[in-house]
Amino acid sequence: MSTDEFYMQRCIELAQKALGKTYPNPLVGSVIVHDGKIIGEGYHQKAGENHAEINAINSVKKTEMLRDSTIYVSLEPCSHYGKTPPCAKKIVDVGFKKVVIGALDPHEKVNGNGKRIIENAGIQVVSGILEKKCIELNKRFFTFHQKKRPFILLKWAQSADGFMDKDFKPYQIGNPLSKQFVHQLRSEEHSILVGTRTALGDNPSLTTREIIGRNPVRILIDPDFIVPRDFRIYNDEAETIILNSKKDSVEGNLKFVKIEREHFLEEAMQKLHEHQIQSVLVEGGSYTLKQFIDLDFWDEAQITVNENLVLKNGTKAPTLPFDPVDCKQFRDNKIFNFRNRFFQ
Question: Does the model's pTM come out above 0.85?
Fold first, then answer.
């Protein structure tokens, strides 16, 4: 590992601390190095607050050292005014001798402009350091801006013999450890989606009860408003989007988004993109999950398998056309991670 890669890896580690907290902004970490020593660190902690580079600059006690320092940043410094001023301009004003970038920002307002501003000021810029890792860190952000839709993660639990419930009635498949992992997933993704059947059958609240973390935006597919308004998904614990075929309106924490019945799923993802939803955790049930799979409309999948549970009868779990890329063990539960090759 080169020196630049070593410090970029630290940027990635810092950025990961804010996973799930920066939407719709990306995860970004920054490190400032002077004479082979780290003198400043920072990461973007929350949308609307200082970006990583500013937090790193502000952490340096001896500001006179900055002009002779190198600043590392996992994603290209922004070049436009949003809720905060452009970081590229701040880097130029400080006068760093060198800037090292992990990956260029795919956002149409940046996309090379930040790098260009810094280079035009006569500062040396190196980019593409641990680029694949930096893109992986922000796979949701890159998918959102490059594919013009949210990053789609499928999730379900099944028995050893491939059933999602027992005799078509809800059944606890995961153990306490795997449930905590699932709630961690919920807090990391921007939103969580279920279909009408799951909402009716399970009456889920779709919040992060098992851990301390943010509640994702809840999304309900309910074209004909079959789910009663007194169900948990309609409570005020989280922002909720109801994808339907009847009306567009906002009622408190509820957003009703009208979708045409033809090509419903594709249009739904376009609408979620318009509403700045960067990632969607699809929690099913079987019918909804199968729709995403049949359209090849997913990026990753997390499947919990209870190795000691045989249910014999119920709703059959969906199947994926290729092998998992990794597996985590949680006592008698295994969680398999799949990646859609079509999108790699």
Answer: yes
Q: Distance between CA atoms of 76 and 70, rounded to whole angstroms?
A: 14
Distance CA 123, CA 146 (A): 29
- 248: tokens are 């567009």
Q: How far apart are CA 38 and CA 135, in angstroms?
A: 24
Q: How far apart are CA 1 and CA 220, in angstroms?
A: 46
pLDDT digits (tens, 9 = 90+) for 221-258: 999 999 999 999 999 999 999 999 999 999 999 999 99
Which long-range contacts link 80-89 to residues 24+ away (Cβ below 8 Å)? 80/109, 80/110, 80/113, 83/47, 83/48, 84/48, 84/49, 84/50, 84/51, 84/54, 86/114, 86/117, 87/51, 87/53, 87/54, 87/114, 88/113, 88/114, 88/115, 88/117, 88/118, 89/117
DSSP of 250-285, one letter per residue?
EETTEEEEE--STTHHHHHHHHHHHTT--EEEE---
Angle at 189 between CA 184 and CA 190, to 5 degrees: 135
Residue tagged active-site, from 53, 188, 189, 300 = 53
Let me know if 326 is exposed, middle or buried by CB neighbors in 10 A (0-12, 13-18, 19+): exposed
Report whether 151 contacts 139 (CB < 8 A).
yes
Instruction: Verify whether residue 53 is a known catalytic residue.
Output: yes
Three-state SS at 161: coil
Alpha helices in 103-213 (DSSP H): 113-120, 131-137, 139-147, 176-188, 196-202
